[in-house]
Specification:
The protein is about 50% helix and about 25% strand. With about 90 residues, the protein is of the alpha+beta class. Strands 2-1-3 form a 3-stranded antiparallel β-sheet. The two termini are about 10 Å apart. About 20% of the residues are buried. The structure holds zinc ion. Zinc ion (ZN) binds next to strand 2 and helix 5. Zinc ion binds next to strand 2 and helix 5.
Amino acid sequence: MVYLIHFNEAFKHARHYIGFTDDLDARLEDHRNGHGARLMAVIRAAGVTWRCVRTWPGDRKLERKLKNRKHAPALCPVCAGAKALNRAKEIN
Ligand SMILES: [Zn+2]
C-alpha cells in the first residue's frame, strides 16, 4: 500500500512524506526510529512529530505517481479536509 504522512510542523518546505510498504505498522515503526527514509530521519532529528493520515491500496507505481504529482497537501485530510478524500477517488 501507499501511505501519506503529515508533519505536525512544516520542515523547511516539507509537510508530507509519501511512501510504499507491505507492512504499514512495521514501516511506521521504522520511521519512528529514524529508519527507512532520509526525510523521515531528518524529521525525527529535528523533533518534528507526524502522523500517518491515509493509505491507498497500490504498488510502487502509484507511489511514484503520487510523489510526482507533488500535490500531497491536496490529498491530505488534515490539510484539505473532506475534499482530499474525494480527490483520492480520482487516482484509483
Ligand atoms: Zn497535510
